[in-house]
Amino acid sequence: MPEYVIAPPPVVGLPVSGSDALFPVRRVYCIGRNYAAHAIEMGDDPDRDPPFFFQKNANNLDPSGSFPYPAKSDDVHYEAEMAVLLKEGGTNIPVQKALDHVFGYALSLDMTRRDLQGEAKKKGRPWEVGKAFERSAPIGPVRPVAEVGHPASGRLALTVNGEIRQEGDLNQMIWKVPEMISYLSDYFELAPGDVILSGTPAGVGPVLRGDVMELSVEGLDSLRVEVI
């Protein structure tokens, strides 16, 4: 075993429904504006321009069910998403073979310091300060493909304190899951443990301390997160 000058960081592991084993996370890729209505509400054209991605850190994924309201922001938004978790990687993966690389799916939230993201956009700077802060991606239990198949349609809904805030359907994605995997593999060498957040429908908005967010998609375990 190699020795390190400091203790290596722990592997981020996510709970898998029906198993005591964890899913290890390597990287987290997030697609931007992948639902037409959300692209419109953010001021973009929803045509099928090439997709764009940003990254969160592996330890931003948080299955605890709590979301600590972050510092340096007064405008923190929810974005409800389906996460895609890979068991195999590679480069230049054909669309027709892309789903063979998927281990399973989960529900997640791409929490965003919208005010800081907006400032970064105006100055042409990266988004990490708005997107990749601690515990910025609450996530639910992973459901293996063997149990749920590959969800390509189904109602996605987010409530805040029991009121519907976001509602859409997985079939409304501009870029479907196989296309996302294939496109990413042209630019990065994907690997087992990579996670892709697949975009959010319209209706993003702010949360406050004490709010309770509940996310559901047909066939996947629901996700309940309290803002603390």
CATH fold topology: Fumarylacetoacetate hydrolase, domain 2
Helix content: 10-25%
Proportion of strand residues: 25-35%
Largest sheet: 6 strands, mixed
Mean pLDDT, all residues:
94
Query: How far from one another are the termini?
Result: 40 Å
Uncertain spans, ≥5 residues at pLDDT below 50?
A: none
Outline type: globular
Strand order of the largest sheet: 4-3-15-8-9-12
Specify the structural class: alpha+beta
What string gives the helices and strands in order? EEEHEEEEEEEHHEEHEEHEEEE
At the fourth CATH level, what is the homologous superfamily? Fumarylacetoacetase-like, C-terminal domain
CATH class: Alpha Beta
* Count of spatially separate domains: 1
The total strand number stands at: 18
Number of helices: 5
Rg value: 17 Å
Domain Fumarylacetoacetase-like C-terminal: 28-227
Protein name: Fumarylpyruvate hydrolase
Pfam family, one: FAA_hydrolase
Keywords: Hydrolase, Metal-binding, Pyruvate
What would your notes on this structure say?
- The chain is an alpha+beta fold and 228 residues long.
- Helix content is 15%, strand content 32%.
- The chain has helices at residues 36-41, 114-122, 128-131, 145-148, 177-187; strands at 12-15, 22-25, 28-31, 53-56, 61-62, 66-67, 76-78, 80-86, 102-109, 112-113, 137-138, 143-144, 155-160, 163-169, 195-197, 205-206, 212-217, 223-227.
- The strands form 5 sheets. A 6-stranded mixed β-sheet has the order 4-3-15-8-9-12. It has a 5-stranded mixed β-sheet with strand order 6-18-17-13-14, with no helix packed on it.
- A hairpin with a 6-residue loop joins β1 (12-15) and β2 (22-25).
- The chain is globular.
- The model has no long low-confidence stretch (mean pLDDT 94).
- It comes from Primorskyibacter sedentarius.
- One of its GO terms (molecular function) is acetylpyruvate hydrolase activity.
